[in-house]
């Protein structure tokens, strides 16, 4: 009897062990499916829009040619508008400017000689005018002759023609001096542009050049963007548009470990035309849907980065107001 009892007990264990394993496996599968459904409900239940942060990026390029003698920009550095960050070698420009100044002095000396001739002729013309007035008075008192008046008038005409001739000779010299002045101004502008001055407030994102490299006009030196306020670009469906307007406050959420961090955002732009959903946002089935792009301004506390994903949540008060209407 004892042996029979032991055999029945062993048989009972063998027959029930697979059943127990099947029950355990079924429970595990159910728990796994339940967790997936819960996570899907969490992801699809609340957020009104998904997107990524972006900022207005500005590429600063060289405005001169030559060696980059000094360049103090570093990636991650915060620069203010008007900050001097370096300069390009201007030795050749300065030498050319001095050469033009010498040429201008030489030409000016020629012009001075011509102008002195004009001054002498104008003095002679003034003397001849006085003589003419004197002769006219003599004629009125019958003390002068018409020949004297004709002679002085002829002399005055000759002097005036001489003045015009000298002025014509001086015109090319004057134009040449003006041309040199323009060239000097151009060089001064190039020398001024060789000073690299940061044009906008922001943080340096990328540095493209190093000191003592040879640069040229239009070559990028660094890229900068104002990261104090980030723009979150999200895409919403047509049915959500009536609930959105420029200047409206929304909640922006980013991942922060196992939780979400909240930020206050202001809608600054809503697209006027629909577009297809970007591939990086939705599944293949949902990419064919037409959506509208929306930009949200968010104050950056230093945690927000370009390209970081985020969610847009409409405020409950806004939703209730729209439903009441």
How would you summarize this macromolecular structure in one to three sentences?
This protein has four helices and 15 strands. With 325 residues, the chain is α+β, with helices and mostly antiparallel strands. The chain folds into three domains: 57-89 and 195-225, OB fold (Dihydrolipoamide Acetyltransferase, E2P) (Beta Barrel); 91-192; 228-324, Elongation Factor Tu (Ef-tu), domain 3.
List its traits:
325 residues; elongated; Elongation Factor Tu (Ef-tu), domain 3; 46% helix; alpha+beta; 4-stranded antiparallel β-sheet
Report on the structure:
The chain has 4 helices and 15 strands. It has helices spanning about 1-45, 90-140, 145-195, 315-325, and strands at about 50-55, 55-60, 65-70, 80, 85-90, 195, 200-205, 215, 220-225, 230-235, 250-255, 260-270, 275, 290-300, 310-315. The protein has a 6-stranded antiparallel β-barrel. A 4-stranded antiparallel β-sheet has the order 2-9-7-4, with no helix packed on it. A hairpin with a 2-residue loop joins β11 (about 250-255) and β12. It is elongated and about 120 Å long. The protein folds into 3 domains: about 55-90 and about 195-225, Beta Barrel (OB fold (Dihydrolipoamide Acetyltransferase, E2P)); about 90-190; about 230-325, Efflux pump adaptor protein, beta barrel domain (Elongation Factor Tu (Ef-tu), domain 3, Beta Barrel), CATH 2.40.30.170.
